[in-house]
Amino acid sequence: MLSLNPKTLSPSPFNLRSFLIPKKPSISSPSLCVNSTTCCQPNQITERGILFDTGDTFFRHESATGRDLGVLSAALYKQSKGQLRVLDAMCGCGIRSLRYLVESKADFVLANDANESHRRVILDNLAQVERLEGEKKRWVVTHCEANRILTDCYLQRDYFDYIDLDSFGSDSSFFLRAAFSSLKLDGLVYVTSTDGYSSGGHRPFHSLSAFGAYVRPMPYANELGLRILIGGAVREASVLGYRVTPLFSYYSYHGPVFRGLLRMNRGKLPEKRDYGFICYCNRCGNSQAVSWDELGQIRCPCNNSTKDAASLVVSGPLWTGPLHSGAYIMEMLNLAE
Q: At what angle do helices 172-181 and 146-155 cross, to 10 degrees?
């Protein structure tokens, strides 16, 4: 039985600022500046040395670290596989798409945003990169609902190496099945949730419909937010005959924002110890992971009676396995340095 520490998610084993090397801003090189964002004109911002326009789109400079991690993981994929095709399903102003092109050296980026009124600002930002390389397109802008563009890619057998789902609330869970269908085997999907109410156990029926997990209030809501997001992805992938492996997980207080990078391959559900339930005792504060075949037999070390068992609350099913791959994070560190 796996014991869980009843605290919020532990800090990342690496500090992003510690391995970003300041360079002179240049659109032709993947420069990463320690001072991530500075304002230029009313709607213009510089992030990691790249100037772009936010227009009237929704943009948070606090999300720069999440974008850094996405760009770094995409660059690592390009280095290891020799190619990189990215689908940015909800691109907003297009800054992530632009950074994938410039810093991750993506061969092709499909930048999609359902709001067609954002087209001008997206085109202006991506125009910093030549659209054509010989006869091949480096980037394309579309305006479709995320599920539709993902499904269209699947129907056309146009598969991607890397899919970024930067959605609002718990919407990412509704796009996962279509995303896995349009992803190459061994490809990466970068998922998002900003649903702090569900992770805090305040909307258990909403978390049940969105992530397949009934979540009760527990003192480590930030970690639960990541675990229900990954657990929902595990469930959706298994329907299609795939298994997913978390490579890293990231939580940020603004929003709040929960992000996870998942690798997809063929396979079945993980071992029962990695997809199950978490039990918390309101009496003594003990936490433990509970497998499916242990349901109905849950006891806390602080009591043995049926009456005292009322202090126990259970959340799940969700991901109870590792939130990070240590080996993968070391590869990210090595590349960043």
A: 10
User: What average pLDDT does the segment 271-290 reach?
Assistant: 89
What does DSSP assign to residue 253? T
pLDDT tens for each residue of 38-68: 444 567 889 999 999 999 998 889 999 999 9
* Amino acid identity for residue 226 in this structure: L
Residue 233 Cα distances to 16, 54, 168, 288, angstroms:
26, 30, 16, 22
Distances (CA, A) of 188 to 36, 37, 109, 117, 179: 25, 27, 14, 29, 10
Bridge partners, residue 37, by sequence: 47
CA distance 207 to 194: 12
Q: Is the peptide bond before 6 cis (omega within 30 degrees of 0)?
A: no
Work out whether strand 85-88 and strand 136-137 pair parallel, antiparallel, or are unpaired: unpaired
Q: Which residues contact 326 (CB under 8 A, 6 or more apart)?
A: 13
Computed from CA positions of residues 52, 59, 19, 193, in that sequence, does the dihedral angle turn out positive or negative? negative
Q: Classify residue 284 as exposed, middle or buried by CB count within 10 Å of its CB (0-12, 13-18, 19+).
A: middle
3-state secondary structure of 319: strand
| Structure-block tokens of residue 28 | 């032709």
Question: pTM score, two decimals?
Answer: 0.86
The pLDDT tens digits of the residues spanning 186-237 come to 999 999 999 999 999 999 999 999 999 999 999 999 999 999 999 999 999 9
Which DSSP letter does residue 118 get?
G
- Cα–Cα distance between 291 and 337 in angstroms, integer? 40
pLDDT for position 309: 67
Q: Residue 271: pLDDT band by 50, 70, 90 thresholds?
A: low
At what angle are helices 326-336 and 64-81 packed, to 10 degrees? 90
